[in-house]
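Feature request, filed as a ticket because there's no other form

It would be nice if the structure record came with a short human-readable summary line next to the tokens. Right now we just get the raw output. Example of a typical job, pasted below so the devs can see what we mean:
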Amino acid sequence: MYGYTSRSLRIDLSTGSATVIGTPPDIVSKFIGGRGAGIALAGRRLTGNFDDPATPLIIASGPLVATEAPTSGRASVISRSPLTGTVLDCSVGGKFGTELKHAGFDIIEITGIAPTWSLITIEDQKVTISDASALAGKNVTDVRTALGTDGADAVIGVAGEKQVRFASIVFDGHYLAGRGGMGAVMGAKKLKAIRVRGNGTFDIFDRAALRASREEIMRLLRASQAVFGELGLAEFGTAALVDLIHARRMEPTGNFRQTFYDHSSSYAGYALKHIYRTKKTGCRGCPILCKKIGQHGEVIPEYETVSHFGALNLNNDAASIVEANRLCNEYGMDTISTAATIACYAEIEDRKLTSEDILDTIRAIGERRTGLGNQLSEGSHRYANASGRPGATMSVKGLELPAYDPRGACGMALAYATSNRGGCHLRAYPISHEILRKPVATDRFSFEGKARIIKIAEDMNAVIDSLTACKFVFFAASLEEYAKAVSAVTGREYDTQSLLRTGERIYVLERYLNSLNGFDADDDDLPGRFFTEEGTSSPNIRIKPLVRQEFLDARSNYYKIRGYDAHGKPTAELMEKLGLGEYV
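Raw output as currently delivered:
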């Protein structure tokens, strides 16, 4: 199989066994790799509890990983979410996917529970499982120091050990499989870390065609103002979005009670660049280098993190925001859920938290301290319900919403509701056309036409995560260019439509597995606040509440376009049409 090593790894931590298997050709054919391959490989096993020994934790590369294709260093992590109960995948950068491929494996599947804290080491097809008890109780930097930084690593901090429901797996120090609690899955298996290093190679079908496709993608990237412009991602990182979302008055503020924060310029991309004198870095194989590192090694937060530890918590102290990000990376926690859960707590307690209060609360959550830390470690949905204030959690399916207020972008509202993994901006990312005007502008205050746009975008992003590539590239390039790249690598003929059909197959399979876990149309909804309360308007822009009937009509249209029944479940006819029966 060109573009693949043709080998995958099955590890049972309960028995301490590691078995090399063939990468399943049917899964590669129907799902390509990454997210899709992991979901198909796990199938019905994603209906068990996250801490069930039989529930798998899967890390999957894709055919473009470790090739010349731009942004080809990513991997996907797949399991069932401890936070939401949905099927869960996270696309993660760094160099782990590349090292895994060079070590001779396409996919790692991990089941079981180790008898003691354990470390998996993979070096050029040699696999060892060793005792890591000495690493227990350590956070990420200390673990990496003990292990050494040769190759790539995936580590959990104390939050993962204590199964904080939004704990993350930290790859290569500051790339997180962040959302939904992957770190808690790893912690439940008593797996402290994975190290991988490889020097192997694999076959590519047509290197000349791959180089040509790379040049075509790079030409589009260089021409993109959003990517390489003077105010773009390459220059300021994703924090470049702070000023744009601020100007559109859709900046979640005070736990989404307002949509405008007067002081956000203090932590915008321009301010962070000059305060910290940043330099560029990024994932293996990426020409964009959107990650920013300060002159003293500070990891500069992404947009979602600066906005949520900033406006969402009414905090304009840039230094504390950078420190909040560092603490979350150290403990191994999702910054979006951490910040949103703290904001939920502040609203329920009717408190204005100081920057030091916020940092102390992060520490309490990361260590799951008795009392407040333990309560908040369950996430905002459980905390708000336990407090008798269910309306204070700004989440969908239990996953806290990111930093785009849906009253200012109707497509984003629908995308939050229909997302398979809960309140997530990256399943469809309508911000691209509603705010960035890419590929074409749409009316952000209208649901008109958004159902079909969201469906297509969900399918597209599912296949991007399966290739695996970075979504930022698609501000400039399209599936047409990537179809040429993956065809050149694999020798299989792909075009835009065949890739979209693959994405549809992945998305519908995830949806069906969620239905087996008890999710239906009632879960495809938004917090009531967005239908009853205005945002923060100005003389030029009025941020009205969403019109509930328009939202419900758009959701109904989405179900029809998808081929779901009235309860939001894929029909038997759709499952048969997509050939999904054997994976459920």
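Something like this underneath would help us a lot:
The chain has 25 helices and 16 strands.
The first helix runs from residue 25 to 31.
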